Amino acid sequence: MPVGDRSYYGAMDARPKAVVLLSGGVDSTTAAALTAREGFALHALTLAYGQRHAAELAAARRVAAALGVARHEVLTIDLRAFGGSALTADIVVPKDRTPDAMAHGIPVTYVPARNTIFLSFALAWAEVLEASDIVIGVNVLDASGYPDCRPEFIEAFERLATVATRAGVEGHQRLRIRAPLIRLTKAEIIRAGTAAGVDYSLTLSCYDPATDGAACGRCDACAFRRKGFAEAGVPDPTRYRP
What we know:
Layout: E1 17-21, H1 26-37, E2 41-48, H2 55-67, E3 71-76, H3 99-102, H4 114-129, E4 133-135, H5 151-164, H6 166-169, E5 176-178, H7 186-195, H8 220-232
Parallel strand pairs: 1-2, 1-4, 2-3, 4-5
Helix pairs in contact: 1-7, 7-8
């Protein structure tokens, strides 16, 4: 049965629900596909937060359609009001950094508290849906030093979810924050997604894409993506700028 094939389940969908944070990149797409394979009905949540690489919103819609999600919500917030990141302010996106440079420190592409904000929206929707699972595609090995991609953060937010919601306090549901890729390399993620039938040509990882959606090929996200496909031995379907 194809991933996300809703016709199999008919009008009464008895599958457990999962709220999946879907950016349209390699990691969130793979996490969503793996969750669907486990038998969950996906409720995909995408945040338009003022990111300069807004082409990822179109990628998220493509992925959501391909996975056959039960519902896809694109919510608009504006973190440009705060700035503080090359993704939300007039700050140059770093290009052509060496692997050693990318392995040390927190880069300027880190968006302050982004995953905390995203998970908070996902938590609110999960409580309304009575969904016990929230899925996020973070991974610590290729995380570019982002503090909100670490296991400690995921564990802390799960504890918060238990005490911060009516469902958790009353014991109606045990909310889980699932991070299935947390300790995988990009190559391992791509192999897992390929085995699950993910079409990575639908995805976008670039922090500074062209207006037509072509990836720059030089930012940290593109570097991790290229390295991942090469190490996985999987052809890279990404359309890069010349």
